[in-house]
Write a structure and sequence with these properties.
By secondary structure, the protein is α/β, with parallel strands linked by helices. It contains eight helices and seven strands. Helix 2 links the parallel strand 2 and strand 3. The chain binds NADP nicotinamide-adenine-dinucleotide phosphate (NAP).
Length: 268
């Protein structure tokens, strides 16, 4: 690499996919800005990256707060002078029946973090990327952003929303040389499940062979950074599941009721 080292902002870098991606990008020579609410975890990661010969900056950020997001971008530009990659990864899911989701604790915060947080962070870096005529924005959606399952109604709304946002944005900013990608992973091991509030009655879960590790998703994001693409579905086989759900919507409704809603609701 010639010239100053490129810069990547990673939101949700304090654990899981964000942390793993930050480590890989730092190893690839990126100066990485680590954003999330748990500053002590970000600082520990910053030190680990520095110990491995990389460079990182920890910035405590709640992406649900517009002032925090603005400050994140300002601190990045003050420290490093540029943003090459923005990985909008911060997010969480509360997966219960809609009537059990609390508006203040579950519904509005999911929208605020997963959807508004991504939109506002993107908007904050955009003037800089447009002025430079380059940049890459990677948005973390989910398989739940392509195929909605029961108890994921609000989560799916945010992740489907990211698809629409990303597609429109790509068509707005491509003329400035800015790339926009969306990542759609299925189930990933780690802390995510512990925040969902999910209490399953049945033993339903993603088949183990299809559960990804944060490291696997991070490797895929690293691949996207190296070679930008419109979207990535992980693992690949889920593209067939999504295709099935789009081709046969009534059958898909029926299957989901039989394998999910009825057992979970204790119905025959
Ligand atoms: N795990 C899965 O099965 C799965 C599947 C598909 C997509 N995804 C998506 O992948 C992304 C990362 O999830 P993960 O699996 O790595 O889970 P995770 O380990 O729980 O990571 C979530 C990250 O988001 C951050 N975050 C949450 N609220 C935030 C806020 N208000 N402001 C800033 N950061 C916030 C958390 O940091 P703090 O708590 O420190 O703020 C944490 O770093 C999410 O967008 C998730 O929807 C996950």
């Amino acid at each position: 690499m010639s010239g100053p080292k490129p810069v990547a902002i990673v939101t949700g870098a304090s654990s899981g996919i964000g942390e793993a991606t930050a480590r890989l990008l730092a190893a690839d020579g990126y100066r990485v800005v680590l954003a999330a609410r748990r500053l002590e975890r970000l600082e520990a990661l910053q030190q680990a990256i520095a110990a491995a010969g990389g460079e990182a900056l920890a910035v405590r950020t709640d992406v649900g707060h517009p002032a925090d997001v603005q400050a994140l971008v300002e601190r990045t530009l003050a420290a490093y002078g540029q943003v090459d990659v923005l990985f909008n990864n911060a997010g969480f899911g509360r997966t219960k029946w809609l009537d059990e989701l609390d508006p203040e604790k579950d519904i509005l915060p999911q929208i605020q973090v997963n959807l508004s947080g991504t939109i506002l962070t993107t908007r904050a870096v955009l003037p800089h990327m447009i002025a430079r005529r380059r940049g890459h924005i990677i948005n973390m959606s989910s398989l739940g952003g392509l195929m909605a399952t029961p108890t994921y109604s609000v989560y799916a709304a945010t992740k489907y929303g990211l698809r629409g946002f990303s597609d429109a944005l790509r068509r707005e900013v491509g003329v400035f040389g800015i790339k926009v990608s969306v990542v759609y992973p299925g189930g990933v091991s780690g802390d995510f499940a512990s925040h969902t509030g999910m209490q399953r009655k049945s033993q339903l879960s993603t088949p183990r062979a299809l559960v990804l590790t944060p490291q696997q998703v991070a490797q895929a994001v690293r691949g996207l950074v190296r070679r930008p693409r419109r979207s990535l579905v992980l693992p690949w086989v889920y593209r067939l599941v999504v295709l099935f759900s789009e081709l046969f919507p009534s059958l898909n409704d029926w299957v989901q009721e039989q394998i999910f809603t009825r057992p979970e609701r204790g119905m025959k």
